Every structure is written in structure tokens, then in C-alpha cells.
User: Which sequence fits this backbone?
């Protein structure tokens, strides 16, 4: 098993994060709404509101933790999807 990989991401809604993970072969964990599981890996997350410096606005930040095997490839695949945004 690889060392867990952590990612903090802002600017993507949770539904889109879930959609990307489904496209990667993950399915929701029946016991935990903030966890998805695939063949050799899983990802769980929590969220928090993070203020924007110099502004009264805040963004939702998702802190994801990937665990399992071959995480470098899983992480790379997720980042390719996340970097293109929702478009």
C-alpha cells in the first residue's frame, strides 16, 4: 500500500468531485457519505469554509485523502479532471 496522498482543493463543487471519482471507477461507500471506494484505492474528504484574503467572501475547501495502491496514477488522473474544471 502506498503512503496516503492528501489534496486540498477549492473551486470545485462536491457533486463534480464525486462525478470525477465515479468516472475513475469509484463508488460511494454505503457507510460514509464522504468516502468513495474503487478496486485498489479509496478517497475520503471533509470540507471547510475558507476566507479569501482581503475579502468578505469565502470558498469551500475540500481536503481529500487518497489511500490504497498505485496512488500516483490515481492522483494524476484526478488532477487531470480537476484542472479542467467543469467545462
Assistant:
Amino acid at each position: 500500500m502506498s503512503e496516503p496522498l492528501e489534496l486540498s482543493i477549492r473551486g470545485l463543487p462536491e457533486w463534480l468531485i464525486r462525478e470525477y471519482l465515479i468516472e475513475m471507477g469509484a463508488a460511494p461507500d454505503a457507510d460514509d457519505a464522504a468516502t468513495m471506494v474503487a478496486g485498489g484505492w479509496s478517497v475520503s474528504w471533509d470540507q471547510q469554509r475558507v476566507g479569501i484574503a482581503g475579502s468578505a467572501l469565502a470558498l469551500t475547501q475540500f481536503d481529500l485523502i487518497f489511500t490504497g495502491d498505485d496512488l500516483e496514477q490515481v492522483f494524476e488522473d484526478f488532477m487531470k479532471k480537476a484542472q479542467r474544471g467543469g467545462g
